[in-house]
Amino acid sequence: MTTTTATVRSRPRITLAPTLAKPLAAAGGVLAVIAALLPWTTFVLFDNDEVNPSLQYFDAPFALSGYRLHTMLLGLAVLVVAFVPRIPGRARAQRALGFGIAAIGLISLIFLSYNGGGVGTVTAADGDAAFGAVVALVAGVLVVLSAIAAGITDIPDFPTRLPRLAAYGALVLAFAAILFLVAETLTAGGRSGVSNPYAGPTFLAFLGMAGGVLGALSGVGVVRWISALSERHRAFSIIILVLCALSLPLTSAGNAYWMTVATTIGVYAATAIGLNVVVGLAGLLDLGYVAFMGVGAFVAANLSGAATSKLGIELPFPVAALIAAILAGIVGAIVGSPTLRVRGDYLAIVTLAFGEIFTRSAQNDIGGLTGGSNAIPRIPDVELGGTAFNEEIQVGGLELPGGVLYYFMIVLVVGAVMAVFANLKNSRAGRAWIAIREDEDAARAMGIRTGKAKIMAFLVGATLAGLAGAIFAHKLTIASFDSFKFLESVTLLAAVILGGMGTIPGAVLGASLLFVLPEKLREFDDYRLLLFGLALILIMRFRPQGLVPDRVRRAELAGETATGKSIDEEEALVVEQEHDGPTGKKGGTA
Amino acid sequence: MTTLLQQIANGIALGATIGLIALGYTMVYGIIQLINFAHGEVFMVGAFGGLAVHRWLLPEAWQGDWYISLPLMIVGGVVVAVTIALIMERFAYRPLRNAPRLAPLITALGVSIVLQEAIRIWFPNAESAQAYPKAFIDAQVDLGPVSISASKLLIIVVSVALSVGLQLYVTKSRMGRAMRATAQDRDTARLMGVNPDRVIVLTFLIGAALAGVAGVLYGVDITNVDNAIGFQNGIFAFTAAVLGGIGSLRGAVIGAFIIGLIKTLGGQYMPGGTQYDYVWIFVVLIFVLVFRPQGLFGEAERVRA
Known about the structure:
- The structure holds 2 protein chains of 2 kinds.
- Chain A is 62% helix and 2% strand.
- By secondary structure, chain A is mostly helical.
- Chain A folds into 2 domains: 18-226, no CATH class; 254-550, ABC transporter involved in vitamin B12 uptake, BtuC (Orthogonal Bundle), CATH 1.10.3470.
- In chain A, strand 3 and strand 4 (387-388) form a beta hairpin.
- The longest helix of chain A is centred in the first third of the chain and has 27 residues, at 90-116.
- The radius of gyration of chain A is 26 Å and the shape is globular.
- Mean pLDDT of chain A is 81; it is low at 1-10 and 558-590.
- Helices cover 73% and strands 4% of the residues of chain B.
- Chain B contains 12 helices and 4 strands.
- Chain B starts with a helix and ends in a 14-residue tail after the last helix.
- Mean pLDDT of chain B is 89; it is low at 300-305.
- Chain B is mostly helical.
- Chain B is globular, with a radius of gyration of 19 Å.
- Chain A binds chain B through residues 285, 338, 341-346, 348-350, 352-354, 356-357, 360-361, 364, 487, 490, 493-494, 497, 526-527, 529-530, 532-537, 540-541, 544, 556-557, and chain B through 35, 92, 95-96, 99-107, 109-114, 116-118, 121, 235, 238, 242, 272, 275-276, 278-279, 282-283, 285-286, 289-291, 293, 303-305.
């Protein structure tokens, strides 16, 4: 029996001698640095190229910027991680960095050779040589191989019992870093919606870099440590997170365009958290969820004095939003009532049917309340003290971009929703939902009133969605059935699953990714849905627990136990212990 | 009265199409308890497969003779539908066979989106609806007070014949017995020497073939197709399968005729007209699921979902 059984992954696909790890990492790191310094393309790709009229962006050796700078930094990081002694979780970090380098290389390789008309663009043509992308790809692969050679180990745990001030400091730093990353991600490849020919690949390469760095941080245990810290100091974390989000307009992403995008993301994030109550906590699959958002939007539109509204009522926004949320909640309870008799995928179909009935009715202008295909246009702006929310504002010497007030509003709403959700999850109701999700019959046997709890889940989720819908209608100034179709429900569900079911950061992260990516990748607009569908299939195949897995949920979706080890590993351990007899212990010597 | 009979005839023709799709739903669900959301898309690619055969493979001399062109189109539709379904089973569903139930359902949604988009992007001009050849006798047949197009009559005849054939195959043949055994208890079936993987593949294959036939006949009858026909008819078919009792072949076909009638009669006589015919189907679906989830012919113990 070896000492490493407990830590080595159960089914390595490629095996390499551990002695190869260091040389491979060294070679990969050095190659990445060299790749950054090499030219990446042999000629100027686009006529009238305003961004890069010469090849400077691709070959100036000592004026590194953008993706080449990232390649170099990742390469240096590989060398540091490989040769600094006693780094915990080293191989995981190496693997993530390697994937990051390879991603940058691969994305650039595909983009450059596709637009340059062949591999000549990225190898050699007309006497010019440009092997940067190829070398970066090779470097990335070498680093990944070195990680495999070293053997992937468990993510290390760090103590989370810190002095209060130290913990707060770490959290502030972490959230400030997140803010910086978000601003950089939004503006990568272009500051506004006007895209240049490099915007898409630049953005993807940036994502590759960011993914590599985050993966490395997660590999050495920093991410887990920070999230454990923020669990421990939850109230403080939420306050800091909201403050960080509120300062987004002060960063490079502070213009009207990104405020609009960020507001939309906020709306979907709030809705996704609501859906997370229904699907993530209570385990009730809802395929028509966006209808609740639609109910909220149409109610708010009709009550706020929109031009074509038949009611002719004009209520102030908070009242309209409140009524919208309550009505959406009531609809939610009605839609949820079949849960009393129907379970599992049958329930999913019932919710799908309700969603389709809503869309079809809204499309046909039911009762003159939805405007049909004309939608309800010209919903008035929200006003506060005479300032319309879409105007630019000045606070002291600060000029804030238009739409910033909507952004502030949605940040506060999402912050509040996160706080409520976090408490809900650990409350009596939350524990009842989780029990129902795990085993409904057992939950009932334990004295939980399952029917009431399930309808409650629908009610809470729908109320949140209704509120988000009201803000959505006012921000867009139009409410149309087109925004509330089946595909939106699937997208929201995908956001929850991609992020990680049952977790708050997961829902927000998932919603951000799914609603930012189309905004950033307009070149691929035609393929957007196709890629989305593929992504759904691939996530379910390779990472069904999502990006930020819930501790308990992970056990269910990924075949892992709550301790984070795969079931195979645990079984292997048990078998081995039995084999060794009573004296055999984990970590015992041969 | 004539209107009523006419709508009943239309409803039966629609039901016949839906029935062929519903058989695929009900068989797959019966065996692996998967709501194969992408099955409607298999019907859609089948229709496009037939269209492709007509457009690019058939020599012009043959296009005028329906008894040559229609069978070839059906073969084309079936081949495309079966190929897609087998790829889907192998690479999307099989790896998730032991995953929690949510996972394959979401994968099915993904497959459905991918197939719709793939047709829209890569089938020439398929961004808009495509004209479908009238590859059958273009005439109305008078049956007493009602008059029905020959192509609708063909769908009804083919659909009933194939359903009866399938019922016989499943109840009488050796492989049919293996299918029923696998549906009842996969592990025990395996112990009895049945290879469940082969049974599952065969199930997908038969379902897809029926959907392919339905796709081509639907196109010939309606004379235009787009990439959304699969989603809508797929939902109808699923409703039919649930109404009839999911897992039951007879139930799926009878459920499909009921759904067809609800749609045409609801569009004719219910408030809101054809704009709301879709809604009545969903209302029926909800009521069936809530009050009789085992459907008309389903076995109660199978409904533990």
